[in-house]
Amino acid sequence: MEKYTKYEKARIIGARALQISMGAPVLIKTDLEDPIEIALLEFERGVIPITVRRRIK
């Protein structure tokens, strides 16, 4: 898994939590109901299909 800054991590988890709250399928088996907790668990397991594009300096 790539190293993400705390800002990238917050953005990825926030975007994924929004997707889940709007009805997107959950990518892991869990009994959790809070979209943020689910997104955090997905992030920790490395299954979120979101990539980070960084500018080259």
UniProtKB/TrEMBL annotation:
Superkingdom, taxonomy of origin: Archaea
InterPro entries per record: DNA-dir_RNA_polK_14-18kDa_CS (IPR020708), Pol_omega/Rpo6/RPB6 (IPR006110), RPB6/omega-like_sf (IPR036161), Rpo6/Rpb6 (IPR006111)
Catalysis performed (reactions): RNA(n) + a ribonucleoside 5'-triphosphate = RNA(n+1) + diphosphate
Protein keywords: Cytoplasm, DNA-directed RNA polymerase, Nucleotidyltransferase, Transcription, Transferase
Localization of this protein: Cytoplasm
GO biological process terms, semicolon-separated: transcription by RNA polymerase I; transcription by RNA polymerase II; tRNA transcription by RNA polymerase III
Main location: cytoplasm
GO CC annotation terms, alphabetical: cytoplasm; DNA-directed RNA polymerase complex
EC number: 2.7.7.6
Alphabetized SMART domains for the sequence: RNA_pol_Rpb6
Complexes and interactors: Part of the RNA polymerase complex.
Protein name in the entry: DNA-directed RNA polymerase subunit Rpo6
Species name: Candidatus Syntropharchaeum butanivorans
